[in-house]
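WARN no homologs supplied; continuing
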Amino acid sequence: MSLLNRQVAKLVVLSISSFILSLLIFLSGVLREFELQAYDLFSRQLNPLRPYSEKVVIVEVDQESIDAMSEQGINWPWPRQVYAPIIEYVSQADALFIDILFTEPSSYGEEDDRILAEAMKKASNVYLPVFLSQKREIMSPTDEDFIKSISVVDKPSIFLNYSSAITPIDALKSSVAGAGNVTISPDDDGVYRRVPLFFGLKEYVIPNFVLSHILKQARVKIKQNSIYFDETKIPLTDGTLMLRYYRDRNPFKVFSASQILGSYLSSAASEDPEVKKDFFRGKIVFLGLTAAGLYDLKPTSISSVSTGVLIHATTLDNIVSSNFVRPLNRIFVVAFMLLISFFISYSVLRSYSLLKNLSMFISSLVVVLIILAILFRESVYMNIIPPITSLIFSFLISVAYSYATEGRQRLFLRATFSQYMDKKIADYIMENPSLIKPGGQIRRVTVFFADLAGFTSFAEVTSAEKVAVILHLVLNSLTEVLIRNQGVIDKYIGDSVMAFWGAPFDTEKDEVNACLSAIQCLKALDEINEGLRADGFSGLKVRIGIHTGEAIAGNIGSDRLFHYTVIGDTVNLASRLESANKFFKTSIIVSENTIMGTDDIFYKRELGSIAVKGKQLPVKIYELLGEKGNVESERQELLSVFQQGMLLYNDKKWAEAAQVFDDLLRQYPEDGPAEFYKRRCEYMISNPHLTEDWDVIKFTEK
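OK structure emitted
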């Protein structure tokens, strides 16, 4: 099996394994409690503050109303005729839902029920609740007829079935505009997040309390996972509507019952009421119990203390404004989990760095949460925990596998690479394994050669053990300099070292880094020489050549031995430039390709154009003197005088140029380039017949 096929097989096995494990956990329901808590957290943070519709109003029988009536000598439970003024005052509303069960005759007598029934009939907009039960009780004929009258559609199988119903008393049945079930059950943790819209009772289908009004205005069509009111589709989850609660503590306009009663009395007395009667025109009003002692408190996804009437109001508003939660089909959830598993497994297999993998994991988690949050904000609910579970298991399984197998091997390779290249470059190669495949690519590189001058003679008069120690000391110092400047150590050849920049990736500072390395290598060797002289040894010198050009870069070793290197004329020329130092008695020679564009960084001295064996075109070369600001004034003066001599030389004024170089040597007797060009001028004076390529210096030896 090829390397690519093995990698694909690993990816498939790891991602599918983590996906299946996550899917089984998802389907088992083990993490359902966490899912519910996550849903509540999203609801509290992302649900809208207020409803989109201002159509819904709540009139609440709160503690303030109970206390106000108690002060007038009317204790709880109130006589039912107390509700009559409220019903009359909000009679201009499209609908009044009274979320109070009137299932027993009033303890205040039949007249009390009659007054309430008359008020309801006159208003003709009142809807009362029925209470469905699982108890097997025989319903009275009037109850059966009432249930039949509010049944709406043929009974499908998706509705929760009940055995009996508790209905309003007979005195009220004929006075209501409609009725619906108020029986709703919380989720397993006791929180009310969803409501059924229809309920099965024998052969009947009873609507939810709030639907009893909507169904008078819209045609209903029921399918397995959704309900249509005319053209409005309401998605269902297990036959229930997921509610989108509003984060505002009082999302709807709320009045206390005492306010409405007071406004009724003020209006009857021709006084300005606190709440005007016209306010309720076209509204949908809910009258319900909110006082803490009346046992209609229910926790929701955004509040631990809410009321049944608020749940009913939210249900109706969600439907009217189409602002309900739309659960995403499980197929999309599963597909998202699979996508996450593949992405995480792929990312982990590509990287060996635990820190990078952790960063990728955290970033992926944030992205997943953002996606889920955006969907949730747009009323689309995708299960929250399953994608996160898939992400976690994919990460853990892939990291465990990677560390147990390839991870240790990669760490070993990284440690090996880091010995002769900067860690950033080693990381880049590890992240791009195609670079270590046999073969290469053409890249612009800067090649560096350094050789210890006279080391062979030094070794002949020094013990082998001492030679090995000193050579190790020198090469180690040079290597540290090169790696610190992001160079790649290519090879050691005896007392020589080769390095390069620009592969596997390049930067804008490759040439500068190479030149800095050369200067710093000289400084490092000076420090070593101080120790050698203290031990009685003569100092060592290093010759460095640097050239920039195109070369083939890649793994050009064997199947057994990896060797990331560069080859080509650029490498050969850099080696020749190192050797050219012998003729000029210099330490660092760089080509024009390398040094161009660095006038503001380095001092350099032009040494002319040279032609080396195997190269047809001449190459202009320079001596690298040092960084700007770090070169002694004497060296700068030498450079200025030398340039005057070179101008005369280039104008073929050999005698004048020779005199300048001779004067320079009297002041600086060890200046190699001045000595070289003095002899060159003397040669040209002796051979005036030389006219072709006279300005090109030919080197025929290495």
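The longest strand covers residues 541-555.
OK
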